Amino acid sequence: MESTKKYPAPSDIKEELLKKYPPKVAKKRGKAIVVNDPEEIPQVQANTRTIPGIITQRGCSYAGCKGVVLGPTRDIVNLVHGPIGCSFYAWLTRRNQTRPDGPEGENYMTYCFSTDMQEEHVVFGGEKKLKQAIQEAYDLFHPKAIGIFSTCPVGLIGDDVHAVAREMREKLGDCNIFGFSCEGYKGVSQSAGHHIANNQVFKHVVGLDDTDKGGKFKINMLGEYNIGGDAFEIERLLAKCGITLVASFSGNSTIGQFENSHTADLNVIMCHRSINYMAEMMETKYGIPWMKVNFIGAEATAKSLRRIARYFEDDELMQRVEEVIAEEMPAVQNVLEATYPHTKGKLAMLFVGGSRAHHYQELFGELGMETISAGYEFGHRDDYEGRKVIPNIKIDADTKNIEELKVTPDPERFRPRKSEEDLARLKEEGLDIRDYEGMMPDMKKGSLVIDDISHYESEKLIELYKPDIFCAGIKEKYVVQKMGVPLKQLHSYDYGGPYAGFSGAINFYKDIDRMVNSRVWKLIQAPWEEENELEATYVTP
Ligand code: CFM
């Protein structure tokens, strides 16, 4: 699709973005802003420290561990060891939904558990308080498991959450207790927290239940967190195809699913950034291959279902998948036909965490919209350029601080689901097992790829490109809308969703049509636009 819009050359835009920075800052930011060429993918700087003073979109390691990976599991008590403020954004702000078994089913997601650390604990140590909090949570709820999440002060004062977890696990006997050293300052972003979460769940939970629960085509879905109900839609489609979902990491999940997840025969990955570690560790220890999928976009959903069926090499499954696609597609096509004339040729920009800036280009593409610029907050080079660059990634001190587990095949339970020959054959037939190509091959030549975009750069980009929609999060939303451009939150989906699968695509088409064709944001004028001298000093009277 060709854009009808005229905008400056991408290299000029890059220059313009860097112009205001001091030379050293400009040099560093310059490496994170690249003009894309899908044929000869340029190197992009990623997963490095944000320059102090720059307003970043990023979050912290604790957010990635507690909020992102463990947050959506409903029956693990998530106990935050730290000051109460750290719990605020961990308490039902991410829109990860869950479906407990009936009204009495265990669900701790509606609670906020914190040790409420005070100055006294920072000075004299907080382990005693932590033990008391574990005991209290246990007495009140008798949960199957308690996860302890370390916030910054815990690392600074040296509380040993792992020793406390061990001691309390032994004392209580029937509650799995494990700690996470996910202090906010670890690594350079929430990405570090994902890795820490993967390690501990793998070490303390995966493999505890060997029960074979049946099912012919058993998969785990990794990196799908059920924002706005996405996982519900994917579950519906998998069930309709006859594919058994053993565990979801971690949208709509339970600890029981994790314990049993090593009995699956394939891991499919939605969000590569947050959970590729788990896939690799499970393959090494249990012999389960992994494959990247994408259920964002109707075409992408159809393709992902077909690829799962091809992996299992079962004619009946392949046929069933085709039937499901044929049943689901007409409704999608109907809405798309009605929407496309209104959305075609519009410009989008996507700056989201680590996967969605890539995945949502599919949906915009279906709407005939062009993604002129995109980037991740905390993706790594492989999320941009593809996994082939992994051997060349320079490991800096920030990443070295994150533990790499040494995983070996399980002496009894390692069972390769496919022989290396079969995997090689499937790969030859086009099934890209153990691979992720990254975002850049899917973006047009001349599009701008920007890692860890700063607030200043976003504003400049909007000024220069005048996009029809900007996708980011709540921190950006109102600033962008005050510039006259609608902002779609791709973290929380605002109040919408699901956007995954076929019915999700329909929801998205309708929501975006409404947003890019509403004139409301262009009609507003900020007070300083009317009176220039108010700029920078304006306060509400
Ligand atoms: Fe993966 Fe996510 Fe994302 Fe992410 Fe996130 Fe998220 Fe995200 Mo917000 S796990 S990387 S840490 S897809 S919370 S559900 S939307 S930044 S793009």
TrEMBL record:
Its cofactor is [8Fe-7S] cluster; [7Fe-Mo-9S-C-homocitryl] cluster. Keywords: ATP-binding, Iron, Iron-sulfur, Metal-binding, Molybdenum, Nitrogen fixation, Nucleotide-binding, Oxidoreductase. Belongs to the NifD/NifK/NifE/NifN family. It comes from Prosthecochloris ethylica. The lineage of its organism: Bacteria, Pseudomonadati, Chlorobiota, Chlorobiia, Chlorobiales. It catalyses: N2 + 8 reduced [2Fe-2S]-[ferredoxin] + 16 ATP + 16 H2O = H2 + 8 oxidized [2Fe-2S]-[ferredoxin] + 2 NH4(+) + 16 ADP + 16 phosphate + 6 H(+). GO terms for molecular function: nitrogenase activity. This is Nitrogenase protein alpha chain. Its EC number is 1.18.6.1. Coiled coil: none annotated. PROSITE patterns: NITROGENASE_1_1, NITROGENASE_1_2. The keyword GTP-binding does not apply. Residues 60-516 form the Nitrogenase/oxidoreductase component domain. This molybdenum-iron protein is part of the nitrogenase complex that catalyzes the key enzymatic reactions in nitrogen fixation. The keyword Oxidoreductase applies. It is an enzyme of class 1 (oxidoreductase). Pfam families: Oxidored_nitro. Tetramer of two alpha and two beta chains. Forms complex with the iron protein (nitrogenase component 2).
